[in-house]
Amino acid sequence: MSEWRHACGMRRPARPVWLCAGWQVDTGSAHTAAPRLATHAAVGPPTLVLVGLDSSGKTTALLRLKYGHYVNTVPTVGFNCECLRGGGCSWVAWDVAVLSACDPFGAPRVLFVVDASSGEERLEDARHELHVLVRRQAAQSAALRRSRPPLLVLANKQDLPGARTPAAMADALGLHDLTPAQPWGHAPACAVTGEGLPEAMDLLRRLLLKAQDTLSRG
Q: CB atoms < 10 A from the CB of 66, how many?
């Protein structure tokens, strides 16, 4: 665990906790079901949560970003966590199995991974989950009195037949219906080969910097 603290620039907290990539699970509460942001986390890398429907390629994308090559995966139970670099900066990245697991993260930056080759019914499910997530993020941001974090939709599996373009995915997911207060972007990728992931992370970083600049000006 000392490796995680060193890699992510975190300090040892005073009270008993479990550490994972700069996040902590409070061992003093029997009701803790997911990691929560440490009070000192602002000194570390920005937090990124990869979410999406099952089999969209979240874990494949996470491990490709971490190791730079394809890693065979199994369905995620709970969450995965890695410290990685992308877009010219370091991130604490979480891959969560269910969208509701994002709640304890306190409105983090989101990489919403979608299988671009999905059928209409599957895309409708993704659209529903994305808008539920955005509403939760908006409520959390309002409670924390800060601007909404950026959302990047990753149109994954571009190597498959019938894969939709990012623009078509934006229409299918209703991204243009989001409020102007919600910063968002979309990018094509193939997590298996890694194609498009560096550009996607660069776009996410630019969205984050733009959101921070807007907040400082406000």
A: 17
Residue 181: burial class (beta carbons within 10 Å; 0-12, 13-18, 19+)? exposed
HEC per residue, 60-88:
HHHHHHHHCCCCCCCCCCCEEEEEEEECC
- Rounded to the nearest 5°, which phi and psi values hold at 138? -65, -45
User: In the block, which residue shows the tokens 């990728």?
Assistant: 189
Q: Find, among 50, 62, 160, 155, the residue nearest to 109 by Cα.
A: 50
CB atoms within 10 A of CB 135: 10
Short-list 152, 79, 58, 147, CA closest to 109: 152
Residues 6 or more apart whose Cβ sits within 8 Å of residue 113: 50, 51, 52, 56, 57, 58, 61, 154, 156, 191
Kindly list the strands in the beta sheet with 184-188, ordered across the sheet, starting from the edge strand earlier in the chain: 79-86, 89-96, 47-51, 109-115, 151-156, 184-188
Higher pLDDT residue, 50 or 145?
50
The CA-to-CA distance between both ends of the chain, in Å, stands at: 39
| Per-residue pLDDT tens digits for 22-36 | 333 332 332 333 444
What is the model's pLDDT at position 185?
Answer: 96
User: For 111, how many CA atoms within 13 A lie in the half-sphere containing its CB?
Assistant: 34
